[in-house]
């Protein structure tokens, strides 16, 4: 099959014109993983004229996507595009071109095509009108079926058998091989492994000489060794509208006291920094401002009106502090709260909490680490594995919650799908930028009657 890169030997099909493609001539592409990245790659490939089968080892597709929708599916964010891209931190220079090629508005348009209008919340986050993932997924799977895409569930990916063949294990437990002209790997990270993303692919990639940054929990809760009294009294209690600070990084919002520490958007936003600091130093300190909208001077004046004989708890409750907030202040300063108004105000504005680490992958929202961007080209093809493309959380990037994770999944899925289509000789016009038929005038969508063997 031409040049060989054992154990892989995927070689691009001879270029063909869309009008010349028949059911027999159309190249076959396997997509491994039925999350958003895999589904989007499959759609791009099918619209370009490839025969596509998605292999998913779970009984149903997009389980983590559905889980994300249980609390209201945050599909993307409405902020300025350059600021949006900056949220990806060190990976922004790699993710940026992909997001620019498929920006948040394009994702909103995609949802609208599937019958799910979106709206911008007060925080700038974008949600489907139904707040759910299930209607969007149902409509999407229906459209994919109409494009001739097959989804083979309960099929585990075991690796490659050489000569462009996949190793798979079917629902009956029997192993078999399947030839493919190209493969898109969208196996996810390793967070919430019970939903399907287990990270077992990392060893396969490393054995092939591909650099993989170790997977680590991202967007996860902070671990704190609460005192038994505080844990017993305040587990499950919220701390409303607080500001968290670690070094020069700040995050604001609501957090919740848990048995093992703190959860919530601001905690997730700082979790990567806290993880790295705790790994390096054994612990990290995060500072909580319980009144971020009140200046230190104003708070000091308010607290200076305290009656001489009134207890801390009574005074602070009458000043508007919740029992959980008072408990947190005592936890931060176990030797006793200061009676001096300025010192007490300073503690309220900067209460230290010792973080021993972050929650593990089994509870993390997402995964940091993955296939290094130096190992892939602009089409997300692994340079050491010609014909193999990667998308989604398999790539080495870390993003906060707020729609950035899903936007990256869609953008990288589209990039990998287009890249595979170009590799197969199906897509050569850079102007063919979208997914809808009007955006791809020269592409061929397989007829709905096409059925391909899995």
Automatic annotation (TrEMBL):
RsdA/BaiN/AoA(So)-like Rossmann fold-like domain residues: 30-418
Taxonomically, the superkingdom here is Bacteria
- Which part of the chain is the RsdA/BaiN/AoA(So)-like insert domain? 217-366
According to its UniProt record, which cofactors does this protein need? FAD
Q: Name one Pfam family in it.
A: HI0933_like
Asked if Chaperone is a keyword of the record, the answer is: no
Q: Does the keyword Flavoprotein apply?
A: yes
> Where are the residues of the annotated region Disordered?
434-454
Keywords, A to Z? FAD, Flavoprotein
* Protein name, UniProt field: NAD(FAD)-utilizing dehydrogenase
Write down the species: Methylocystis echinoides
Taxon lineage: Bacteria, Pseudomonadati, Pseudomonadota, Alphaproteobacteria, Hyphomicrobiales
């Amino acid at each position: 099959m031409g040049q060989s890169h054992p154990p892989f030997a995927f070689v691009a099909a001879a270029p063909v014109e869309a009008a010349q493609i028949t059911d027999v001539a159309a190249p076959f592409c396997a997509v491994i993983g039925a999350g958003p990245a895999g589904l989007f790659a499959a759609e791009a490939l099918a619209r370009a004229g490839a025969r596509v089968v998605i292999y998913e080892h779970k009984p149903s597709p997009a389980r983590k996507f559905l889980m994300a929708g249980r609390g209201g599916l945050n599909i993307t964010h409405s902020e300025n595009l350059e600021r949006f891209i900056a949220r990806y931190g060190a990976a922004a220079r790699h993710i940026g071109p992909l997001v620019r090629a498929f920006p948040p508005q394009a994702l909103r348009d995609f949802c609208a095509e599937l019958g799910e209008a979106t709206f911008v919340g007060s925080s700038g986050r974008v949600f489907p009108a139904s707040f759910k993932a299930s209607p969007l997924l149902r409509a999407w799977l229906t459209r994919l079926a109409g494009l001739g895409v097959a989804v083979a569930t309960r099929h585990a990916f075991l690796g490659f058998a050489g000569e462009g063949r996949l190793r798979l294990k079917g629902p009956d437990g029997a192993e078999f091989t399947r030839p493919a002209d190209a493969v898109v790997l969208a196996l996810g990270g390793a967070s919430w492994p019970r939903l399907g993303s287990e990270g077992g692919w990392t060893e396969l990639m490393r054995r092939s000489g591909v650099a993989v940054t170790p997977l680590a929990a991202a967007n996860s809760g902070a671990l704190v060794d609460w005192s038994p009294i505080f844990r017993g009294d305040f587990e499950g209690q919220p701390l409303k509208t607080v500001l968290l600070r670690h070094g020069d990084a700040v995050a604001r919002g609501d957090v919740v006291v848990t048995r093992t520490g703190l959860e919530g958007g601001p905690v997730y936003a700082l979790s990567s920094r806290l993880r790295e600091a705790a790994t390096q130093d054994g612990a990290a300190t995060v500072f909580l401002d319980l009144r971020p909208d009140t200046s230190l001077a104003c708070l000091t004046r308010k607290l200076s009106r305290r009656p001489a004989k009134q207890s801390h708890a009574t005074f602070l409750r009458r000043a508007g502090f919740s029992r959980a907030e008072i408990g947190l202040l005592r936890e931060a300063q176990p030797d006793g709260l200061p009676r001096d108004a300025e010192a007490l105000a300073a503690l309220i504005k900067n209460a230290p909490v010792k973080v021993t680490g972050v929650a593990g992958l089994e509870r993390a929202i997402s995964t940091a680490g993955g296939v290094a961007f130096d190992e892939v080209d602009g089409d997300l093809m692994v340079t050491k594995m010609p014909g193999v493309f990667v998308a989604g959380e398999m790539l080495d990037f870390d993003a906060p919650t707020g729609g950035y994770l899903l936007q990256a999944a869609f953008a990288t899925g589209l990039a990998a799908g287009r890249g595979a289509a170009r590799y197969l000789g199906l897509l050569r016009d850079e102007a063919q930028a979208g997914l809808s038929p009007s955006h791809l005038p020269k592409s061929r969508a397989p007829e709905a009657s096409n059925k391909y063997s899995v």
